[in-house]
Every structure is written in C-alpha cells, then in structure tokens.
Amino acid sequence: MSRTATLAAGIRAHHRRWHSDPILNDAYAVQLVSPFWRQVAHNRLLNWIVVHKLLGPFHPIHTENILRARYAEDRLAEAIADGVRQYVILGAGLDTYALRHPELAGRVRIFEVDQPGMQALKKERVRRVHGGLPAHVTFVPVDFEIDRLDEALAGAGFDPQTPTFFSWLGTTYYLTRPAIRETLDSIAAAAAPESRLVLDFLLARHLIPLEGLPLADKLERLVKRLGEPMVSEFIPKELDGELARVGFAPLDKVPPEEQAGRYLQDRRDMAAPAPNFSFALYARRGMGGGTETDVRTETAG
What we know:
By secondary structure, this protein is of the alpha/beta class. It has twelve helices and seven strands.
C-alpha cells in the first residue's frame, strides 16, 4: 500500500471536513482511508494533534495536493465538454472521481491505473463502502517501472482511436527518468489526436526560492522515511522537451506562485502552496489551432 497515496486521501478528507468552502469537495475520501485517518478527519483533538502539530510544517504540501486535484478536474471538465470520452488516471491511488460523478456512466469510460497491490486495496474499500465497483470504471494493474501502459490499456478494452484525457498526478517525482520516458512513450502510443495530459512535477532545486528550500528538504526527508523517495525533478522547458519528443505540446503551466492566484484568492484558511511543485497541461499534436504556441503561463527555466 502506498503511504503517500493514503496521505493524499487523508488530506482530501481533512479539507472537506474542516473547510467550510472546500476547493475540492471529496465526500468519499474519508470512507476510503484507513480507520486512523478517518479518526483524524472527524475527531477535533486528534485532528489538531496530527494535522496541526505533527504535520503543521507541511501545510503547503496539503494545499498543493488539493490544488493539483482541482486543477486536473477543471481541465477534465473542459475536455469532456469538448467531446473527450475516455479518462485515464495514472497512479490513481484512492482517487474518488468516479464515485463523485456517477452521471458520467454511459458517457465517459474511466480507466484507473495503479500498482496491483494498491489497486486491490482500493477495490476492496470501494466495494465495502459503495456496495460494488462503479460500472464506468475499468481497473488496470500496472507497475510503471516494468509494464507497458499502452499494452495494459489495450488489454483492458481501451480505444486508442478515441481522444482521451490522461491525469498523472503525485507520481512522476517517485519514478526514475527511464520509467518516466517509458510511460510517456506508452501514453503517446495510446493517445489519439486531441488527447490531453495533465501532470504535476517536482521543480529543479535551483528554481525553488531560498525561503522555500527548508520545506522542500523536510518533504524529501519525510517521503524517504516513508519508503517512497523522490528521484526525479525537472526544469519546465526540459519537461516540454520530453513531451515534445512523444508528440505533445504545452497548453498551460501553473507554477507555485500562480496556483494561489487561481484558486486561493483571498482565503486565509489555507497555507500558500508548496514552492517546489508545478502543474502542466499538454495536448497531443493534431489538435489544431497551433497548440505549440498556446501556452498560457510560462515558467522560468
């Protein structure tokens, strides 16, 4: 079981319980986390001890976790409105999008891709709280370090001729560069023209403001202790090159300083987002309209 995936779901559960106007309103996260994290979400004293005392220094990471999910789902809604009918969630963890959107059954087919062990746990918990698995979801077990994504998707009934939205969050920094390239090759092999990909990535250290380095270092030490060290970082233009190699062009980039402007505005109940993660949206060439120059936000580097 991925501890970071469980922590991410715990953050979503906490956010919905303790924020009156949640940016991501995930009512199912608390049902899928462990009994301990359910208690953290519901019990005021335990929540204060765990979230505010023990994890207090990591509140910017909590914010990044919420904002990246909201960003991906906003971009997905746009894609569905434009006619995309397949959604692939890479490293799905305890994602609850399908449970929160039963109205998409018959319209959008969702493929949840993850490590076999994590996926087995997810399916067990979904059956327990939901009474069964959503009919519009196909679970695809994949080890990103070994398996070919496109082959696994093909075996699960994925249609490579249909434009697809790919979401790849909370994962790239835990993979080696060869594994990232292999996954991008597989995405490109599976993605029809007009497909889109949203991902988040760890910024290269020299792009992190000096005041943000202590937090970045604390986070690296934490995930290493959890057994899931971060091993890959990017300069944004370098990431553009990796995506261009497989036929994807940038549509949008959201560096840390812009994330707050898009989603937090004048909110005082959430920390500023972590200074070491960025989001990006890419489109498969052939989409039309000159996608290579339609970048709404550029990040230095």
